[in-house]
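Minutes, project check-in
Item: structure for the 153-residue chain
Input as provided by the requester:
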Amino acid sequence: TYAPKLILLDISDINCIRDIAKEILNCYGCVDILINNSSMKVKGAVQSISLELDKKIMDANYFGPITLTKAILPNMISRRTGQIVLINSIQGKIGIPFRAAYAASKHAAVGFFDCLRAEMEEFDISVSTVNPTFICSYHRQQAPGNWEASIWK
């Protein structure tokens, strides 16, 4: 058995993900199951959400999970085994008003992992997507002029 090792990762910081994946593979040798369970969302009208915030949400909900998956994937392919799970959102299937950036990022993730599932079949790697309905999550109250305070994490 392995002693647990805490590795901190900001999934929206794309630049550090590959290094974290290398650290994990160096420590344990392989990853049998990768569960991508990250989310960042903001509530607001399309015209009131900045492009900067749209990009931050896309980094956390789309580019982060696919970057981590791509970093772990070669190890799974070489071993011809593994399981990749995306914990996503029902909003990856349907959009609702005032969640455009969030829904778009979740739609993109579903599309990527659907394609990945088909490609990984020949390597006996299972790819699953879970799209739960609305859940209660931690929320910081919005502060005037501080968009980060309106983010759900």
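Outcome recorded: The longest strand covers residues 82-87.
No further action items on this chain.
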